[in-house]
Specification:
Elements (H helix, E strand, L loop, with lengths): L1 E5 L14 H15 L3 E7 L4 E5 L2 E6 L6 H19 L8 E4 L6 H11 L2 E5 L5 H6 L5 H22 L3 E4 L2 H9 L8 E3 L16
Parallel strand pairs: 1-2, 1-5, 2-4, 5-6, 6-7, 7-8
Antiparallel strand pairs: 3-4
Length: about 210
């Protein structure tokens, strides 16, 4: 099976910083799936455009055209979709696309589904929309954050809508996905965070 991972900064090895769910979950899951015999490609973002191999993984790093907020997300969507269209013509796609970025490149997901019939899995990272919404009229900064957050929310809804499954790490987040992102029950899969045995000393109490 050919699998594409979309994620934030991707480590070049276990000695690089591996922090946040966007990076850590994608890193260990990509290695695990490759270790099971599947062909895994990683598309990450970073400060420098490059391509490298890390063990069984083929890693491609692109630089977002813009650096902040919803405009960064939109520019990243456009550039990644254009690159994907060029590099993966019909017949050279992926069986599964797994997104671990905060917001997926919607155009790329649509293209993978329509051109290659890819199964799309999206990982939900939660939202601070209730807090943003509550503070929108208190300061000018609060209003700017509200407008940016609203744009991000619309993009998230669209990326979840084109996905076959959206992964939630908890029952609480399921409620959030249903109420804020308007997702039906059958599109949500709860997979709780775990520990990689052998990397972390879990002792005898867990």
């Amino acid at each position: 099976m050919k699998v594409l991972f979309l994620c934030k900064t991707f480590p070049k090895g276990p000695h690089d910083p591996i922090v946040s769910g966007e990076v850590k979950n994608a890193y260990y899951l990509a290695l695990g799936i490759a270790g099971a015999g599947h062909e895994v490609t990683v598309w990450a973002t970073g400060p420098k455009a490059e391509r490298f191999t890390m063990g069984p993984l083929d890693v491609r790093v692109s630089v977002p055209p813009l650096k902040k907020g919803v405009f960064k997300t939109i520019s990243e969507n456009i550039s990644d979709t254009a690159a994907f269209s060029k590099e993966h013509p019909k017949g050279q796609g992926f069986d599964v696309v797994i997104n671990h970025r905060l917001t997926a490149p919607i155009g790329l997901l649509n293209l993978a589904r329509k051109r290659h019939g890819s199964y799309i899995i999206n990982t939900a990272h939660g939202t601070n929309w209730p807090e943003i919404n509550a503070n929108r009229f208190r300061t000018a900064r609060g209003m700017a954050t509200f407008l940016n957050g609203g744009g991000q929310l619309l993009l998230d809804r669209k990326s979840y809508a084109v996905s076959d499954k959206v992964v939630s790490v908890s029952a609480f987040q399921v409620k959030e996905l249903q109420e804020i992102y308007r997702l039906p029950d059958d599109k949500i899969a709860v997979i709780r965070n775990g520990v990689v045995v052998g990397i972390v000393d879990i002792g005898t109490k867990l």
